[in-house]
Amino acid sequence: MKNKIVILSLLISSVLYVSSCKDDDANEPEGVVHDTTPYILDYGNFPSPNIAEDNPLTIQGVKLGKMLFYEKKLSGDGTQACASCHLQEFAFTDSAQFSIGVRGEKGGRHAMSVFNMAWNDNEFFWDGRAHLLRDQALLPIQDELEMDETLENVVAKLSESQMYKNQFIRAFGSDEVTSEKVSLALEQFMNSITSTNSKYDEFLKDSTVFTASEKRGFKLFNTEYNPFFPEESGADCQHCHSGLNFENDKYMNNGLDATFADDGRGKATEDPADNGKFKVTSLRNIALTAPYMHDGRFNTLEEVVDHYSEQIKASATLDPALEQTRETGLFLTEQDKKDLVAFLKTLTDKELTTNPKYSSPF
Question: What domains appear along the chain, each with residue ranges and CATH number?
Answer without folding.
Answer: 59-194 (1.10.760.10), 199-347 (1.10.760.10)
